[in-house]
Amino acid sequence: MLAISAVFLVFTVIIFTAADFANKVDPNICLTPDCIKEAARILRTIDESVSPCDDFYQFSCGKWIESTLIPEHKSSQSTFDELQDELNRKLRVLIEESSQNSEKRSFVNKLKDLYITYIEAKGDQPLLDLLDRFGGWPVLKSSHWNESQFNWFESYIKLRQIGVVDNMLITIFVDIDDKNNSRRVLYLDQPSLGLFDRDLLLKGMNDTSVSAYFDLMVKSAVLLGAQKDTAHRQMTEVLEFETLLANYSLAKEERRNMSLLYNKMTTEELDQIAPNYSLAKEERRNMSLLYNKMTTEELDQIAPNTDWMSLINNFTTKPIAKHEEVVVIDTKFIKSLDLILPQTKKRTLANYMMWRIVFSKISALGAKWRNLETEYEAKVMGKQRQEPRWEQCVSIVQSVVGIGLSNLYINRYFNNDNKQMTLDIVKNIKTEFEGILHEIDWMEKNTLTHALDKLQNMELKVGFPSELMDEKKINNYYIDLHINRDDYFQNRIKAYKWLSDYQFSQLREINNKNDWRKYAEVTEVNAYYFPQENAMVIPAGILQGIFYNKNRPKY
């Protein structure tokens, strides 16, 4: 009897103690399972042995850094990367399921066929056939290469018409006008270089990345049949030419001043900018000399060695007239390019252009090429092995049929309630920020008025556009994209051509800020501000994991 009484007494004490504890718990503290899991995750990442006042980075990330390993096929790892990896695994499932289910939807067939052909990429012959369409790669043909048949201008146009990388000498593209975001205009810019960092090229062969890039050039030529000593000699000239392009290109920090990068001119002006003009490094760094606003009729006048009207009209899907405005970014580069092209040996130019074709297609070739690429990336990026083939395939599908893949992702994995909840959170942040702006005393009245106006008119693009659920719209978007289930190499060329055609078709088009296609690729773990349209973009891909959980508190 005493034992029973004792048990009852203990039980009563526990009940009243628990009730008393519950009454004392701060109602603002979340104790749901999701909140407890999140608290545990935070404790696993922070380093409590360090004071946040002494080293906030170590305090907030210390344990995560200690416990996280960089995968061998990557050069870095972050919480963004972890979520992107998880999302990519979901995309793989969606694509491979679609491949098995014989979907009738056109865009689904295209993305699954592209995925399958990439898995089964072929060998060297498609690349050799492509090079032969330009007269061949001189380093392979040696004395049999016909110099008289080569013309860089005609070859550059052919690059665009076929659908091969076409930005190795100058970049031509259509985008929103930085000075008038209601329209799209044609831009001319410096080239995209083979080695990703222009400053690295300028360090020369003593730099590990440059020597690795040169080694890749030589080994690629040898793999296709060149003699090693011939490849070494001719690729040295190619590297010197690309370094010259890098030297005349702007550094990243110089390109950040967008007001100075904007130069309108006519095609006639461009033909007049180059004669007897060379730039010292001091002049190239002087921003007042580098950038000038001009009318479009000046384009042909400032660079007369190049037929800019013909070049541009062979790139665009809509011919332009001499009086039409184009935006030239960095006119000094145009001047320099117009001078050096006529002075460069045809063999060097052809070797450079063919090398850039080869470089752009390495991942589309067989295993020996992928091994060569892995060797290069290990030296330049620190990757120890190549990423799994399926990851490469998913990445390719995203880059080409990203809108279609986003449709599959939203239908399977995204809860539509998350869209409205996130929108409410962002609206609350806007309201609070507006209050902060009204309280500050250091901003001039005119500036404050503009800031408030910009805040009030900011567009919020959250989750996904509703049109993404309309399969007819998606099929219509991809109607001119043709994918062959048996030939990935040609698929890659067709895809590049289709993307380029679509971009150039937007020339002169009114920029519709509500064009759903601009915000329909939502399978990326990222959020960003789009300054040209004053829009905050939070795609569905980031609304997961540590960034979003509808069951966590909305403090």
TrEMBL record:
In terms of PROSITE patterns, this protein maps to: NEPRILYSIN
Can you quote a single GO CC term?
plasma membrane
Q: Alphabetically, which GO biological process terms does the record hold?
A: protein processing
What are the GO MF terms of this UniProt record? metalloendopeptidase activity
* Keyword Signal (UniProt): yes
Record key words, sorted: Signal
Superkingdom, taxonomy of origin: Eukaryota
Gene3D superfamilies xrefs: Neutral endopeptidase , domain2
The keyword Protein biosynthesis is assigned to this record: no
The signal peptide stretch is: 1-19
Q: Give start and end of each Peptidase M13 N-terminal domain.
A: 52-279
Family membership noted in the UniProt record: Belongs to the peptidase M13 family.
Recorded protein name is Peptidase M13 N-terminal domain-containing protein
